[in-house]
């Protein structure tokens, strides 16, 4: 018995020593972290997201100082009273706040609030309720640019458009600060505690001109109403550089960049490929093509013109947009040359623009071009393009055959980081001589052909109309069309290339009646903007 009495104190001290060793040595780090968390609070310091400007420095997307309110429920003392006071400030329904305070460890009461509301919350001194600095993304010209600029999530991450594509540059780097906790759970700065200042995101300066963007948007919006179209799209490019000066999508409430993402059959605007291929093969603009009757049967299918044009020269075939003539000219061109010309102008490939969701369209290789398919391709049926591709192909012709990669970001500026995007020449697609001949034809289209309603009496315009049936799963859809017009001006040393598209207009049947006059409106509007087209091209009423 005495042995046990002597042993028990020894066992007790051994047990105590073991526990002290376990707590202070083996589990020191774990308990140290837990103790630290009880007395310290790490708070994220939100970086200001970079702004986006047009080419003249006008803001298109900016970050405005805001505040976010959070709840750490384990520090909330009076749950019902806290919920009531927050509800009285309009921060949520009382019952919903009670539910969250009971079931969640942490939640955002409300994000992106103004300074006045944040101050009111701070003055309540509610245990467990805190306010942190934040930023609200604001788009001053959202109506005109929502599809291009895109948007961000509640935590300022890019979700679409340029906000998504350049998120890594715009978002910056968040910092943090460590605060000492009061018994109430609120934090306060403490000397020598670690802190990392946030690094602001870089700013984007675009190639876009806000005046042109608004003009293009408003003109296409009126056209959608006037012709009762489902939607519309348009783009303006500077030939010789590839700068995108305006890019518009009229999709109702739908956020979608049709200019780069939607593929469609271009119709007669694609005939520049047939014309260019014929000129490459050595054919002349004064060659005669017999289109008498206005009908041509190919592989059991009938191809027809708007009317019987009789005999036309090669130039006249394109001026009057004869489908029969385009097919007959195509028969004089090797299919390999037709395919190579289409590829050289950028069809069937991505343009490489720095925007998400670009489609590349579809053109067929020579071995895939059976008799009927090739005939259809010669007048723009059976191939698919995007409006950006189509407009960029015309930009190559306007630039004497130089095909440039289109781009929308001119430069990035942020802290020590500065980067300027330069024009990128993809290839020389056609010779200057061939481009000059095509320009002569396109100028005649506007002066005396299907594009007459696009004319401007002081500005020489080159352009082409396009009317195409819409294709469905079972074939072409009766009465449903897409109308396009692509053109550039002035004819000598063009400054602008404009491509527009109206989808399923219910008023009018041809691009000559629909998109040609809309193009003319855009040119007239541009001439009224000071300094846009130069004094020698001033528009007269």
From TrEMBL:
Residue stretches spanning the membrane: none
Gene3D superfamilies the UniProt entry points to: 3.30.450.330, DD-peptidase/beta-lactamase superfamily, Penicillin-binding protein 2a (Domain 2)
Positions of the Penicillin-binding protein dimerisation domain: 46-186
Entry's Gene Ontology molecular function annotations: penicillin binding
Boundaries of every Penicillin-binding protein transpeptidase domain copy: 234-523
Keywords: Membrane
Protein's UniProt name: Penicillin-binding protein 2
Pfam families to which the protein is assigned, alphabetical: PBP_dimer, Transpeptidase
Organism: candidate division WOR-3 bacterium
